[in-house]
Amino acid sequence: MLEQIFSMIFTTSFGYSIIRITSPILFAALAAVVAEKAGVTNIGLEGIMMISALFGVLFAYWTSYWWVGVIGAVVVGIILALIIGIFALKLKTDIILAGIAINLVGSGGTIFLLYLFTGLKGNTASLTTPGMLTPKINIPILESIPVLGPIFSGHSILTYVAFILVFLVWVLLYKTAIGLQIRAVGENSNAADSVGISVLKIQYIALGISGALSGLGGAYMSMYYSQSWNTGIVAGRGFIALAAQAMGQGEPLGTMFASLFFGFASALGNKMEGMQGFSSFLVSAIPYVATIIGLILYAATQVRRVKRVKNNGKKKNAEAK
Amino acid sequence: MADNEYVVQMKGITKVYPNGIAANQGVDFNVKRGEIHALMGENGAGKSTLMKMLFGLEQPTEGEIYVNGEKVSLTSPTVAISKGIGMVHQHFMLVPNLTVAENMVLGMEPKHKGMFMDYKKAVEITEEYAKKYNLHVDPNAKVRDIPVGMKQKVEILKALVRGAKILILDEPTAVLTTQETEELFKELIHLKEQGYTMIFISHKLHEIKQITDRLTIMRSGKSMGVYQTADISKEEISRLMVGRDVILTVEKDQAQPTDVVLRVRDLEYTNEWNKKMLNKLSFDVRKGEILGIAGVEGNGQRELVDMLFNLNTPDSGTATVNGQSVIGQPQRKIRDLGVSLIPEDRMTFGMAGTATIEENLMSDRSADNKYNNGPLFNMKKMHEDSDQLIKDYKVLCKSRNQQVGMLSGGNIQKVVVAREFSADPILIIADQPTRGIDVGATEFIRKKLVELSRAGAAVLLVSADLNEVMELSDSLIIMYNGGIAAYFEDTTSLTDAVMGEYMLGLKQQSDEEVRRVQHGE
Amino acid sequence: MGNKQKLKFEFMRGFVAIAIAIAVAFIFIFICADDPAKALNCLLIRPIISNGALNVSSILTILGRMTPIIFTGLAVCVMFSANQFNLAGEGTVMAGGFVAALLAIYVPMAAGLHPVVCILVGAVVGGLLMLIPAIAKVKLNASEMVCSLMLNYVVLYVIMHFLSNVFADRSQGSTQTYPFLETAKVAKMVPGTELTWGFVIAIIATILVGFFMYRTRWGYTIRMIGINESFSKYSGMRVGGVIVLSQVIGGVLSGMGGAIEVLGRYNTFLWKDLPGYGWTGITVAILAKNNPLAIPFAALFIAYLNRGCELMSIYASVPAEMIDIIQAVIFLFFAAEQFMSKTRQKMVVKETKEELAKKQQEAAVEGGNA
């Protein structure tokens, strides 16, 4: 039995599918990272992905250029995130509730919007033409290397974008002026305010970036992963992204590993489907169970850390005496 | 035309807050170029308000401000900074997870290629300023990891790098150890030599004497005059600073104290910045007396109250109510022992703003048998008692169903007091019970406190209001540096001048004298 | 502002929010309906009046559809009142329904007792599940929100596993369980409709939760913690325990709702995805401003709109999912504290002025008398 699993895991196609499955989660998780760094919780990622996935397909269909679709998805993502921003920051709706409202639009409203724009019901399979899908990229040299080639080459262009974005988001947060201000606002908005930084402006910017990133995640789902848009397309990936952000402790790299972990567990679930003696459903539950356990362990270490810091201070004091 | 000898002139400044409190009344405040000017006064004297206006955080109701002879309208900190005014806040405005250099340049980041932050440049700037002003900091350390003294240097450098020529230092030594304070003073003198002007807010007389050129004393929102530091004695400063103006007298009989109710022994606490806030503190409060705790704020009073109500835990020491420990006990148990607390921060601890008056009055007793019939509340009893309390405590409101947050400060405090006093307490801890509320409510609350103590409650009154603490207390402790500077068994012959000298650390009673507050055992 | 004024303002604000949402709906309808008049008729009138007479069957359907969302609305109401953003309503509804279904299939019992036991066990399962995010929050300060979201999916997949690998009725084309025993079903109030006695239980639950929140010490403590946790602690309330309690009650209510819905509406268990009632419950609770007694009215409103959209999709070919957009719009404006804050400011100023004028008048009268 174990042999069977191992022989399955140690195949290049399994590695390939991990990366394929991780990409959309990674987009959304990075979106969560940026928003959370500025002190705003964007729980609307799920809905934003759903809606931008739809508009990605529509824009690509209308123009027959896949890249217009991607840009359209990003723009729609930004607009939706800013709507959350206006309600949460200006009209003082609780930001969690504002996000939930966007998710409502995402879950059912999209079906209506699809009908509104195309007259179709439930999915866009009939619209899809190969030109609308984001192209696969074979990376020269890498593709001919055994093992690595089949795993890392031949993904959608957006997959590469997702992993490059891990680096770019890190650069944004840690190497740019705006990133510095985002981190300052998220951690101590009074301090930021006292040196003339507009806290609201920074939070809008962070939400906008978060919307753009989740828009890319949406585009990946409908214009590559599922090849078209349908009602169950996002299936909780926006929420998983929030968990990945939490498990990655809000840092781009850590969040990437958390996303890969989800990707691994999902890929495993997919592979084990139909295998004797294994329930694909239970395997699918693993990443969620792991997240809960991860969150609890992380919280426990935080509680311990606070205690330790306090005790250390006291100890130092005793020594000084 | 304003005289150019002065870098800052504030003329006839009056500030009335929307709640009607006049924090400044016709204050004149002038600072000469290149001096260190002390701004002194008790808590609530109006120093912070005055400085907030100079830093653009508040706008004066009346009066004019001149900087370098030019009339200015300081509408925001950004404007104040552009006029060369910088402020070092008492609570640091720093981002803990950023490095020192990042904090330094926040909001004015050096960049290359348009958007990338030039971190190297930020470090260079930090090092350059650190060297120039002799303020040594580690540019690459995260702020959360550096000691308090260095955090303060970062704050000063932050102001300097933004072009400040006039520095407002708000109680800069309050968080520092003795060595750190000495170091800071050297640095400030170094800055002075380079032509910077400093406004130094402090209560500590020896510091003022050591470092400042001139000083302005404030009391009750007014200026008590400007003096050359060298020409004025510490006793004179203390007399000008500490004093009573409006005296609300409260009639009270001689106290007949009996058994000890609250017994505090050797309480010690060091806060997270390694500053000792409580130092072997011991005292007793007896049934039937009001023991006042006076002192300049920040000398351990808040920490003491927090320990007694388990809002914090001491490092060592005991506190018992009728022999039962209250340290580390759940609040439910402390209340069941008969302890009531009027909290200093009534908005955070004293009330639930959007709940009704009735709901606020019932918060400590909602589980009592008399208010419950089995699983359900006895609403009739609740309504009756609430209405009675509203009547007894003269809470001005439309009905018991009005939201507490909609009431005036004085009426909110009456609701808090009504709840705490009606719980049949054997020990009442009243922490700044009348701060910031109107005269009528103040008088009412003070009378009630006396009434309850005469009826047999032990009262511990913590107050920065000298008038209050002297009028109400039967006996009195003055706290200084986390310990007891003086104990007065009888307050009737006590004068402001004597109080001031103990409060400001000029005098200290002997151990034997202080130990008199421990009755028996 | 006085209490009455405040109520008046809140009503006005709610009305404007609904008006905006309906206006949005109008715009959509005019864009996509072939016959906008007919579509509007379907949306607004047809759910209750059809062909000049009361549309009884539709009204009964609306009442039936209210049942599960009253339960989840109440659940959210209790949890949000304690300031706990627990979003596991979805998972607990499904878990409660599934466990009740298993009892209904495999454990024969007397007719009257059977559904009662099923519903109670469903409720207990819901409550137990909520212990996970609740205890993690209270003991370790872990985010109950992320934890509860994950819990939803764990519940979903575990149930899917049992449904398809253990309890599936292989004779059926789709994945579903064996049929429930007749004794276990929640009886219809009106045969042939969706309205079951579950509706009555929902109304009773509403009254009980209302009493609980406003007439018992536990509900009172929940509300005080939600308003100001520090104050509650200082007042001597058992904050941690009550936070756990609020979430467990939330789980009990949604578990119960799930059980009643499954046993009332279906003959077998066939949910293969999270049912969505948890999210609708949040909308309902927001509309009801966390007041349990207002929950049925909010649920009625949502069920009415739902039915209207459904009719619109049948007769005027406007997709029923328009409801989600309308809901989202209402939801956003209802929860926006600063929405129409200028109007509120004006009302406050006006009231203060009036009071001052009254006082002056009184003073003048007194002065005249003297």
Automatic annotation (TrEMBL), chain A:
Membrane topology of the entry: Multi-pass membrane protein
InterPro entries, per database record: ABC_transp_permease
Entry keywords, A to Z: Cell membrane, Membrane, Transmembrane, Transmembrane helix
Endoplasmic reticulum in keyword set: no
GO molecular function: transmembrane transporter activity
Location (main, coarse): membrane
One CC-aspect GO term: plasma membrane
Pfam families: BPD_transp_2
Protein name per UniProt: Nucleoside ABC transporter membrane protein
Origin species: Anaerotignum lactatifermentans DSM 14214
UniProtKB/TrEMBL annotation, chain B:
Origin: domain of life: Bacteria
Pfam families found in the cross-reference section: ABC_tran (PF00005)
InterPro entries documented for this protein: AAA+_ATPase, ABC_carbohydrate_import_ATPase, ABC_transporter-like_ATP-bd, ABC_transporter-like_CS, P-loop_NTPase
Annotated compartments: Cell membrane
A GO CC annotation given for this chain: plasma membrane
Keywords assigned: ATP-binding, Cell membrane, Membrane, Nucleotide-binding, Repeat, Sugar transport, Translocase, Transport
Stretches assigned to the ABC transporter domain: 8-245, 262-506
GO molecular function: ATP binding; ATP hydrolysis activity
Bilayer topology annotation: Peripheral membrane protein
Keyword Chaperone attached: no
Protein name: Simple sugar transport system ATP-binding protein
From TrEMBL, chain C:
Entry-linked CDD domains: TM_PBP1_transp_TpRbsC_like
Compartments it resides in: Cell membrane
Domain of life: Bacteria
One example GO MF annotation: transmembrane transporter activity
GO cellular component, one term: plasma membrane
Pfam families: BPD_transp_2
InterPro entries listed in its UniProt record: ABC_transp_permease
Main location: membrane
UniProt keyword annotations, A-Z: Cell membrane, Membrane, Sugar transport, Transmembrane, Transmembrane helix, Transport
Topological type in the membrane: Multi-pass membrane protein
Bilayer-crossing regions: 12-31, 59-80, 87-107, 113-136, 148-168, 195-214, 235-257, 277-302, 314-336
Protein name: Simple sugar transport system permease protein
